Amino acid sequence: MIKTQNIKAALLTAMLLTGASAMAQTVSVELKSSNEVPANPSTASGTGSISVAADKTVSGSITTTGIEGKMAHIHTGAAGANGPVLVGLTKNGDNGWTVPAGAKFTDEQYAAYMAGGLYVNVHSAVHPGGEIRGQLLPK
Asked: Exposed (0-12), middle (13-18) or buried (19+): which is 136, by Cβ within 10 Å?
């Protein structure tokens, strides 16, 4: 009887973990200078993906080309508007940025994410306010 209960508990745990993973929202993001506010003439670019799990934990990374990035962040802000930093990304090599382990959105930040009200950008010495930017647009 104890073995049967243990097996049932293990199966239930596996199903719950699989369900939570399936509920994660992952968005691809393309970063361009024309998306910055204000736009700039940089030819740099970036691509990546950001995932938000059912418990609102955030993960993901971006890779850039043509930019010597100094900082990268996820910000609050609709397309065409700037906003405050929510999550600072960690530099990973010359052209990579990663969401740090343990990053998590509040309910309000998650609602903004789901409404397309967050963006990722990379800052440089030439464009300290942001050189390339991509809006996070969940489906």
From this structure: buried
